[in-house]
Write a structure and sequence with these properties.
CATH superfamily of the largest domain: Medium-chain alcohol dehydrogenases, catalytic domain
Order of helices and strands: EEEHEEEEEHEEEHEHEHEHEHEHEHEHE
Number of helices: 10
Low-confidence stretches: none
Structural class: alpha/beta
Shape: globular
Length: about 350
Amino acid sequence: MGKIKAIALTGIRQMEIVDVTMPSIKKDDDVLINIKLVGVCGSDVHYYETGRIGSQVVQYPYFVGHECSATVVEVGKAVRHIKTGDVVAVEPAVSCHNCDQCLAGRENTCRNLLFLGTPPQNGCMSEYIVISADCLYPTHDEISLEQAAACEPLSIGLYSVRQAKLTENAAIAILGAGPIGLSVMLAAKAQGITNIYVTEKINERIKAARKNGAAWVGNPDIESVVKIINQKEPLGIDAYFECAGQQETIDQGLEMLKPGGRAVIVGIPRLDRISLNIDRLRRSEITVINIRRQNKCLQPAIDLVASKKANVDFMITHRFKFEQAKQAFDMVAGYRNGVIKAMIEF
């Protein structure tokens, strides 16, 4: 078989372009796809900087990446819904569809889940990969390749908002305006939520949130965001979405919630443990909701973008060529140059 190019993690903050064997279809529902664009996600950066996320530890060389768009090169003989040449958005989670979780409609917590770019499954930072047809969603040329790659983080925002079960007149706070926090904002806005309060420390992200749907945006480094939001919503907010993965923002959110409110934990903390004020949780009967990626929301995310109800273009701030992948990771890891979402072109 021939060789193709892929981008491998080879150590902490080390990355190389390597030759790997061209993958091939082995199952009837397999599809060979040519990767076009890969978005650099915070979880990819976790692996790049530390070699692990919690119990998931990288064995080098390892291939990260899970936010991608592609074109179909070859399909297995059982595949019907896509054909050679189709442009597709990729669902990175490969569920078994047979365990108790899948049968209960919880494919995102499948007992046998494989996920692109999460050990032991290699990611999509390669010219070609093979993946199950169930994971591919044709775009029908209704959205761009960049938009298709951005639909994966948007699907997490959409799922997070759905899990919060918000009413139309709800007031919410989003703590952290990176790609996931901004995706939550877009999903809430598309649902008709207007009382959206956002906190963020990076100026470019503050401006992006303010321009694209937030009712108010504040920087916790220079103002008392809790005090201001509580003044704007004296009865408290209905839900907060923690999208920074920080103890500080988890605590801030709890101070804003009304009794019966929902704390939605979307960000991935780097620590193995976080703490929650149990007195506050108990006395106000706060519901804590943990988000595990997303479930059945990629097609709705594509539809939102195609319908112009969600504009993801503003989040894509930087574009890199294949050979510049390490520069992209270093920029995202250092929050440099106002980066929100960096895309790597394959």
